[in-house]
């Protein structure tokens, strides 16, 4: 209302803005700069991303893990979010608490917890062997399966909250209308809920995909060095082998791919609306 | 056998009785309005009929069969929601075809019926539009076409015109009456707008506090209401005190007798008389009219009819709607004579 107050409010954001520029924007620009100057120069650095077999392998692993993480997460999260909107207020509070608990546990702790559950002598394998369901331990960790399990566990709460927000926005009278018009539960789901929640599904999937592409700790621990994803690969290039040229050019490439993905998504009006802008 | 019977339906939410022993019999093809202020139970009854809520006790009989346990999707009742509740992701045709697709009609038959419905509501040129590209009135027509397309036994309408402006509302009232006539479907129409109920329905059921206080044809309810609530809620009305001794009434600061069909028939120390603003004339009137003197306390210009706030010598106030050629603003503050025909006066006990 008052312009003096507005100006004052604007000044209050300055320290945070400076912090972001100093700690975030500048380092990123520096990474971009290094990727052009380190080693044998820009062209050679970026050319290697397309010719190196190691990079190709890492990119392939990253894509495969990220996509399967996204798909599995979305299925689990949709079931949970869909259940939540049909609960009583009391049940929903409990469910929301359950969904948010993982947020309070460090990623590191969660990764180690999964290792104790999934490893060969772990809780799951010894349990299955003692009841005689299997004779030899199943390889559940230090491979893609382990990485995917850990990442899905990390992503589900985010996806649930995003989907839940979208599903609560759906006008329940439209669902009632479908029933009054003779649609049975399966029809109501396939013809009303699913199509009307597509924007939410798209937003949540994009979020998880983008997040997965740059995941570091979970794949590093649960992959045990055998399932190498881009972020860990970059980290290894910097701290172990000192290959700044490769690390920075790969970082820049990841940044560009993610940026393009978002830009492409924002072309759709539903996505624009979901990310805050007006849809018109 | 009656077509649709609501038999002593009661519905409680905790201590609140949203429906309190409501009974109603509906003939096939009727246009019935459920009229009442908000919170009077009319929408609760409609939702019970549609199957969206489960009454605490009572029965709903369709062709003599209790349908209370049936799910909404198994009732074959069309429902037009407040705010229309169209499927935003489907086109106009897609919305109208929805009930036909879930009933697994074949494509040729669906196409023919959609065409027919589009023609019925005059939306042929907009068949491929999405709901958000339509005006309120157009969305309303889509909602009607969708709810009628599968040939429902009954069409339930929940304040369908409340979101429209006045001009469009009147137009849609005509449209709804036409649809009712042309389809022959039974309409149950919830509204809080007494004018809407009066102009559209064959019969009105007036709701108050979870009960039907009175039901009947619009003419009957308007001309001879038996409860104060209906006399007040349907159309404008004035209430003054009266009494009857030896067959002669006292009221409006004068004495008069009422025609037989209006008279209560017995003497009463105190009764309530009502007289609608439009039934009050200026001057002494003709022989046999009730004439009385009142002071003009307020004057509101109203086009063809001006509205006068009058005060009787007894201190009672009421409103008269008088033809604009007869009184002008200079009447303000004066004691003037007014009259009414005896048959326009009603008695409530």
Please give a quick description of this structure.
Chain A has 280 residues and is mostly helical. Chain A has helices at 3-12, 14-37, 42-51, 53-85, 89-100, 107-118, 123-130, 144-168, 172-180, 185-213, 217-223, 230-239, 244-265, 269-274.
What is the strand and helix layout of this fold?
The complex is a heterodimer of chains A (280) and B (349).
Chain A: H1 3-12, H2 14-37, H3 42-51, H4 53-85, H5 89-100, H6 107-118, H7 123-130, H8 144-168, H9 172-180, H10 185-213, H11 217-223, H12 230-239, H13 244-265, H14 269-274
Chain B: E1 4-13, E2 16-26, E3 31-35, H1 42-50, E4 57-62, E5 65-66, E6 77-80, H2 92-102, H3 107-121, H4 136-148, E7 154-158, H5 166-183, E8 186-191, H6 194-200, E9 203-208, E10 211-216, H7 218-223, H8 228-233, E11 238-245, E12 248-251, E13 254-256, E14 268-275, E15 281-282, E16 290-300, E17 305-311, E18 317-323, E19 335-340, E20 346-348
Parallel strand pairs in B: 3-8, 3-9, 6-7, 7-8
Antiparallel strand pairs in B: 1-2, 1-4, 4-5, 9-10, 11-12, 11-14, 12-13, 14-20, 15-19, 16-17, 16-19, 17-18
Pfam families (chain B): ABC_tran
Family (chain B): Belongs to the ABC transporter superfamily.
Protein name (chain B): ABC transporter ATP-binding protein
Characterise this structure.
The complex is a heterodimer of chains A (280) and B (349). Chain A has helices at 3-12, 14-37, 42-51, 53-85, 89-100, 107-118, 123-130, 144-168, 172-180, 185-213, 217-223, 230-239, 244-265, 269-274. With 280 residues, chain A is an all-alpha fold. Chain A has 14 helices and no strands. Chain A is globular and about 70 Å long. Chain B is an alpha+beta fold and 349 residues long. The radius of gyration of chain B is 25 Å and the shape is elongated. The chains are: A mainly alpha (280), B alpha+beta (349). Chain A binds chain B through residues 171, 173-174, 176-184, 187, 191-192, 195-196, 198, and chain B through 50-52, 71-79, 81-83, 85-89, 98-99, 101-103, 146-147, 150, 156.
